[in-house]
Amino acid sequence: MDHARARLMAISDDAIELTTIESAFTKDVKLDSLDKGETTMHNTQQKDQAKYYKEIAAFIRDQNHVLLFGASNAKSELLNLLKEDRAFDKIKIEIQSTDKMTEKQEFAFVKDYFSKLR
Known about the structure:
- This protein is α+β, with helices and mostly antiparallel strands.
- The chain has helices at 27-35, 38-60, 74-83, 103-115, and strands at residues 5-12, 15-22, 65-70, 92-97.
- Strands 1-2 form a two-stranded antiparallel sheet. The chain has a two-stranded parallel sheet with strand order 3-4.
- Helix 1 (27-35) packs antiparallel against helix 2 (38-60).
């Protein structure tokens, strides 16, 4: 995951179901809001990022074990937000830094990670 997109993978019986969530704060939105001032741009970014993390959290709420991974610090930011919400106390959430990966590499990474836990 990064600040722009999260690929959410739910594993069950060796099948992986993929859901993609994208942040509304795109480069175009950034440029448009920056034209209105730096404060407006930062407010837009924070609002869109909060919505993005909330959508990811809604998916995580239904899981038992979660691995947040990626090259950016978005995974750590999300983990800190989830730790503040007691609804996530019983969900095992781990983070792992990785290099940028293709979708196929992400699938293999997730499958390998969770196969070691069984």
